[in-house]
Specification:
Blueprint lengths: L2 H8 L16 H18 L3 E3 L17 E8 L8 E6 L3 E10 L3 H16 L4 E4 L8 E14 L3 E13 L4 E13 L5 H34 L6
Parallel strand pairs: 1-4, 2-5, 2-6, 3-6
Antiparallel strand pairs: 3-4, 6-7, 7-8
C-alpha cells in the first residue's frame, strides 16, 4: 500500500502549523488552539455513504409447489454492528473509516442479497424476511464473521459467512455451510474497495442460493411437493 493511501486512511486535516520557539507563547494556548482546529475540521468533514448492487435481478417467477423460505437474522460481531467500512492491515491491525460508511449495516446487506438471490431462482413459493407474522417451511439464518477490506501484498475484500437452514416443522437444523471468499480490488482508493465488496457479496449470495436450491431440490424429490401452510 502506498503512503498516500495510508495517509488517506488517517482522515485528519493535516498539520496545524509549526510550534513557536518563543517562550512568550505558552504551551497551554498551543494545545487549546490545536484542539480547536482539529475539532473544527472533524466536525465539518462530510461523511460518504456507499451501497452495493443487488445480488440478482428480481423475478416474478415462483413455484406454487415449492417451499416458503424465511430469511432470518444475520448476526454480526460488535465490530460489524455499525456502518463504518472496516479494514485489516497486516497480521494484527484492524480499524474503520470514520468518513466512509455503508448505507446499511453489513448484516442487513447480506440478508437483502440472500433474499434476492433465492427469489431469482424461481424455485420457491415465497421468499420472505422473517417476522412475527411470517409463516414458512424453512428459516435461513446465519452469522457474518468478516466483511472488510484486507491489505496484504494487494488490496482485496473478504467475506466470511456461516448459514444454517432450520426446518420449521421440527425446529431442527437440516443444512449448514460456511462461505468464505476474497475478491481483489482493482485499485487503492475507497471506490475500488466498494466495487470489490460489491462483486464479492454477489458471488457469495449466488453461491449460497445455489447450495440451498440443490439441497431443497433433493428434499423435494424424496418427499414430494410441499403443501402450502
Amino acid at each position: 500500500m502506498t503512503n498516500s493511501f495510508l495517509w488517506g486512511r488517517l482522515e485528519t486535516c493535516g498539520p496545524i502549523g509549526n510550534r513557536p520557539s518563543s517562550s512568550a507563547a505558552p504551551l497551554v494556548y498551543l494545545t487549546i488552539g490545536a484542539i480547536f482546529l482539529f475539532t473544527s475540521c472533524v466536525s465539518t468533514r462530510p461523511v460518504h455513504y456507499y451501497t452495493l448492487s443487488p445480488a440478482s435481478a428480481p423475478t416474478n417467477q415462483t413455484n406454487p409447489d415449492g417451499p416458503t423460505i424465511l430469511i432470518g437474522l444475520i448476526a454480526t460481531p460488535e465490530s460489524l454492528q455499525d456502518a463504518r467500512i472496516r479494514y485489516h492491515a497486516g497480521a494484527n491491525e484492524t480499524g474503520s473509516y470514520e468518513y466512509h460508511r455503508w448505507e446499511q449495516r453489513p448484516g442487513a446487506m447480506v440478508r437483502d442479497s440472500l433474499v434476492r438471490a433465492l427469489r431469482a431462482s424461481g424455485k420457491y413459493r415465497r421468499v420472505l424476511e422473517s417476522s412475527s407474522v411470517a409463516i414458512g417451511d424453512y428459516l435461513l439464518r446465519g452469522k457474518l464473521y468478516e466483511f472488510a477490506e484486507v491489505d496484504n501484498a494487494a488490496i482485496q475484500t473478504k467475506i466470511s459467512l456461516h448459514l444454517e437452514l432450520i426446518d420449521k416443522k421440527t425446529n431442527r437444523s437440516v443444512w449448514d455451510r460456511p462461505f468464505e471468499r476474497e475478491e481483489p480490488a482493482s485499485g487503492k482508493n475507497i471506490n475500488d474497495v466498494v466495487a470489490s465488496m460489491d462483486r464479492n457479496l454477489q458471488q457469495v449470495a449466488t453461491a449460497a442460493a445455489a447450495e440451498i436450491d440443490k439441497f431443497l431440490a433433493a428434499v423435494g424429490r424424496a418427499s414430494g411437493p410441499v403443501r402450502p401452510l
